[in-house]
Design brief:
alpha/beta; 239 residues; 8 strands; disordered C terminus; disordered N terminus; 6-stranded parallel beta sheet; globular; 8 helices
Length: 239
């Protein structure tokens, strides 16, 4: 998945967190950025993240979105989104991740029902994109640390950094998204993911089923109605 949003390429935005709208107001007023486990996102919460906004022409995959949200509430830490290349895995993961930053809620402040929409609460949402090239484990750890505003971790050797970053992820409620994960070549990353407890969650997209314990979400082809909807939206955009 590689596209530009607000002047940022999603393949290179890994190290640049987007400040959430209203963060300064929330901080000044003493609003807690965390939330009780299992709670829903408040319009005043500040979720640290580096997630790019999703494309406007995203076609709802309601069944898959619902299954992902169920997985986020399960005790297991990993949600595996898999399917053929180009089927829409990254777009779906991006849509879910954006929802969980709370930005979509903040953009609908006039909607009285916005805060009641079911969504688990996270303190941070971290996006790591492997579609252009495979990030090393060290780069992924640095991305996590940057979004979590941890200046110490990048200075540590990798072995100590793994322990340090895993502790940080287990201390807060974080969602780590690894886009275009390849189970065959990411053994170091897979071992790191195994250190993440159920307080935080990991959402990975890949062409194959994750080979270890995970909540699996298969992405198939769009039905005819969804295809027509997507074609209609894009034809309007091209006019």
């Amino acid at each position: 998945m590689s596209h530009v949003r607000a002047g940022r390429d999603i393949t290179t935005h890994n190290y640049f967190p987007y400040p959430a709208a209203g963060a300064a107001d929330a901080s000044a007023s003493g609003v807690d950025s965390g939330a009780a486990e299992g709670g829903s996102l408040s319009t005043e919460q500040f979720v640290r993240h580096n997630v790019a906004p999703p494309f406007a022409d995203f076609v709802d995959r309601r069944r898959e979105q619902a299954r992902i949200h169920r997985g986020l509430r399960k005790r297991g830490a990993i949600i595996s989104i898999y399917g053929m290349a180009g089927i829409g895995k990254s777009a779906l993961a991006n849509k879910i991740a954006w929802q969980l930053t709370g930005e979509s809620i903040r953009s609908r402040r006039g909607d009285a029902h916005a805060t009641t929409r079911a969504a688990p609460a996270f303190d941070a949402v971290i996006w790591c994109d492997q579609s252009a090239r495979h990030m090393t484990l060290d780069e992924i750890l640095n991305t996590i640390s940057f979004v979590l505003e941890d200046t110490r971790a990048p200075l540590l050797p990798v072995a100590r950094k793994v322990e340090h970053v895993a502790r940080n992820l287990n201390r807060e409620r974080c969602l780590l998204v690894v886009d275009n994960f390849d189970d065959r070549y990411n053994s170091d990353l897979r071992h790191f993911l195994a250190r993440i407890g159920s307080r935080s969650k990991v959402m990975i997209t890949s062409r194959t089923v994750y080979s270890h314990d995970a909540w699996h979400v298969r992405i198939g082809s769009l039905n005819n109605r969804a295809r027509l909807s997507m074609i209609s939206r894009r034809s309007i955009d091209w006019r």
